[in-house]
Amino acid sequence: MKNFTNLITALIVAIWIGVIAVFSIQNITNVSLKFLTFQTINIPIGVVLTFSVGVGLISGSILPILLKKPTKKNKPKLKRNLFRNSTKQELEEDPLENW
Fold it and tell me: 61, 84 in Cβ contact below 8 A?
């Protein structure tokens, strides 16, 4: 089953790379990105798209590791001691006897 999952993942990545390649070949026009006051140099759309997908893949695989909640390795088992406050004599007595 793990091999099948790896195959599907590889196929999805390969299809994305193919789509980006076809898109970048068809759209060679240069673009300049603007964000607030910053502006990039003129680069082809395919390069921008490839860079964006690469950053997304890398950050998408790193962020879950960084945002993982810490777990306690020595979790106490949920055993309740019902007779924790009882004395030995109270435990030995039959509760139905004094009823």
Answer: no
Spatial CA neighbour of 29 closest among 41, 9, 8, 43 = 43
* pLDDT on residue 11: 92
**Integer Cα distance of 19 and 11 in angstroms:** 12
CA atoms of 21 and 24, how far apart (whole Å): 5
Secondary structure class of 31 (helix, strand, coil): strand
H helix and E strand count, the chain: 3, 4
22-31: pLDDT as tens digits: 877 887 888 8
Indicate if the alpha-carbon torsion angle 82, 84, 85, 86 is positive or negative: positive
Coil, strand or helix at 30: strand
| Alpha-carbon distance values, 22 to 18, 41, 79, 86 (Å) | 6, 23, 61, 77
Phi, psi of 33 (to 5 degrees): -85, 140
This prediction has a pTM of 0.47
